[in-house]
Structures are given as C-alpha cells and as structure tokens.
C-alpha cells in the first residue's frame, strides 16, 4: 500500500526517472518485508542513543540504619529483665531475709518507676501479708493505695503481680480492707473483663478470694452499685461475685440482709445483656429458693384467722361435770407464704413470672 501511494502521488517523478523509481520500489518492498521485531529494535536503539546521561546521586542514606551498640545492649537488658520477673504462687513464696530493712523501703519501692524493681516490691508485700502481716497494719492504707496504682500500670507484668498482691492482702486482712476496698474492687472488675487472658484469669481468682475472705454483709453493699454499671462485662463480674457471696450468709444472714432485697437483685440481672450475668442470677435465685424452703425463719407467716368450732352439747355436759379439770388447747396452726406467693408479693408481675419460670423449671428437672 505504501508503494502504491507513492507511485500515485509522484507519478510525474516516476516517469521522469524510471531507474530511480525501480530502486525506490525495491527498497520500500524490502522495508515492508522486514519483521516487526527488527524494526522496533532499530527504533529502540535510536532512542537509547538519544537519551541524555544522568549522573548518579551520591551520599544516599539507607532507610534502615544498622543497629547501634548501645541499643543492642538496651534490648538485651530488657530481655534479661523480662526473664527475671516470675509469677510465683502464694504457697511457693519464701519468707523475707531482712524484715526490718524490707519494711523501711517498702513504700518507696512501690513508688519506683523501674518496673522490675516494682514487681519485686509487690512480691515483698505478698511476703509480708503471708508471714508478717502485723507489720503492715500501720501502713496498710498506704500500701493498698500504691497497689491500686500498680493495678493501673499498662505493663502486664506489673498489673498481674499487683493482682496477685491484692489476693494475698484479702487473705491476710479480710474485713480490715473494706474501708479501702472501692478503688481496688473497680480495678479488679475491670481487669477481669479484659481481653488479655492471663491478666483476666488472675483477676478472677482475686475476686473469688475476695468473696471468700471478706464478710458478705460488708461486701454485698460494695458490689451492688456495679450491678448497674454501664459496662456489661463489669455487671457480669459483679453478678458472679454476688452469687458467690450470698450463700455464705446462711439463713440468719440472709434474713438479716433481707431476702426480698436479694431476690430483687437477682431478678434485675435475669434480663441482662451478657449470658454470664444471667447465669449468675439464675444460680443466685436457686440458692435463695433452697434456703427459703429449708429454713422457715425466712418465710413470713400468714395472718389467717382460723375459726373455732362451737362446742357441742356433749362437750358442755362434760365441761359442767368436770369443771375443775381443764382440757389442753390444740396448738395454733402456723401458715407460711410459699415461694411462689413470696415472689409475687415482693416483685412486679413480670419479674415474678421470670423468677418463677427459672426456679420452677429447675425444680421439675430435678424431679
């Protein structure tokens, strides 16, 4: 096609120069017959020759710098420090070698910013709680305040050691920690609902120790506000603590605290968001039902007037004949409210139905 166009446009030139025309036609035919790859190679080689020369850049700084000797030493010391921190169970903690000097530096050690030293001091608090708890009586409030500060530490090793310290304090001092319990309790509830498993498990163990070591009469008022906390996980953990603490009251303790209050607490948790909280409420209701049925002291008496039958003629004659002899009167019959009646009288209708649905279904399964 290229040859034809050239021949058509330059017809006059072709007639004037026939020899040149033949040569040009031959050259054009050869050009059209060349492979495409050879033509592109020729054009690319020309482009390479025409590209300007660019001088290479000097003094280019690498993106990743080689490690400095000081940083390597710092990382190595950090790894050694991590290896030095151990989570020792209470039964395996040994006594302090120097009690007096350890007591003198205890508070300052709890304020240390060096986390390895802080963990060691927390373990010393545990040793004091186990072997020398009388030495902590005068500074117990200050110790608890600093332990709470350690519970808020973002480093997991410090946090878990502080949780274990809290559990040992509960075991050693029991009801004496009630006045300082609020900040420690909220931190343990928070840590027990975290995603870090080893921290969560340690906090749950500490809460179990708390419910065992502290009197339920003192602990339940501390737990009750957290049953309405906006965080559903905290509500669930508080419900578990309540369900563990109430059975330790016994029948007399339940009566003193108020079984009607406890039933209202449990019924409010039956409709909670998390199943963990609902299960704790069911367990509490079953314990309350068992205590109510087995202990008449918990069941209020019904005010029922029992009609006395009129005396018959024969009884009148017997009475007149033996006026000096008095027959013993039968003991008055005492009627108690049943569990169903008690729930219906102390709860709203829908709440009472939910409670009875739980307790009745479990009773039928047991039968």
UniProtKB/TrEMBL annotation:
GO MF terms held by the record: microtubule binding
Biased composition (Low complexity): 313-327
GO annotation, biological process: microtubule cytoskeleton organization
Residue ranges occupied by any TOG domain in the UniProt entry: 92-331
Residue ranges of the region described as Disordered: 302-335
GO cellular component, one term: cytoplasmic microtubule
Protein name: TOG domain-containing protein
């Amino acid at each position: 096609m290229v040859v034809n166009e050239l021949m058509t446009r330059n017809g006059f030139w072709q007639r004037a120069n026939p020899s040149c025309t033949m040569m040009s036609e031959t050259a054009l035919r050869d050009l059209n017959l060349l492979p495409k790859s050879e033509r592109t190679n020729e054009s690319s080689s020309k482009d390479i020759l025409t590209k300007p020369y660019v001088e290479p850049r000097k003094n280019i700084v690498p993106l990743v710098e080689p490690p400095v000797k000081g940083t390597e030493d710092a990382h190595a010391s950090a790894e050694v420090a991590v290896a030095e921190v151990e989570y020792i169970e209470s039964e395996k903690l040994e006594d302090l070698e120097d009690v007096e000097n350890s007591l003198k530096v205890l508070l300052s050690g709890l304020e240390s910013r060096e986390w390895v030293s802080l963990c060691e001091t927390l373990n010393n608090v545990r040793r004091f709680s186990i072997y020398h708890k009388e030495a902590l009586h005068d500074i117990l409030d200050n110790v608890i305040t600093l332990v709470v500060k350690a519970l808020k530490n973002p480093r997991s090793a410090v946090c878990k050691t502080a949780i274990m310290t809290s559990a040992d304090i509960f075991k050693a001092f029991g009801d004496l920690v009630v006045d300082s319990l609020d900040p420690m309790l909220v931190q343990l509830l928070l840590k027990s609902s975290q995603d870090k498993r080893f921290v969560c498990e340690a906090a749950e163990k500490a809460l179990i120790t708390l419910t065992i070591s502290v009197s339920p009469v003192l602990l339940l008022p501390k737990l009750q506000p957290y049953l309405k906390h906006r965080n559903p996980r905290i509500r669930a953990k508080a419900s578990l603590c309540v369900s563990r603490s109430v059975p330790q009251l016994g029948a007399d303790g339940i009566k003193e605290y108020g079984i009607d209050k406890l039933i209202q607490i449990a019924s409010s948790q039956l409709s909670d968001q998390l199943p963990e909280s609902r299960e704790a409420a069911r367990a509490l209701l079953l314990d309350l039902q068992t205590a109510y049925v087995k202990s008449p002291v918990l069941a209020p008496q019904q005010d029922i007037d029992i009609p006395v039958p009129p005396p018959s003629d024969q009884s009148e004659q017997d009475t007149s004949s033996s006026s000096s002899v008095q027959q013993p009167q039968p003991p008055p019959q005492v009627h108690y409210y049943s569990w169903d009646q008690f729930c219906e009288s102390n709860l709203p209708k829908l709440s009472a139905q939910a409670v009875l649905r739980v307790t009745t279904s479990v009773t039928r399964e047991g039968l």
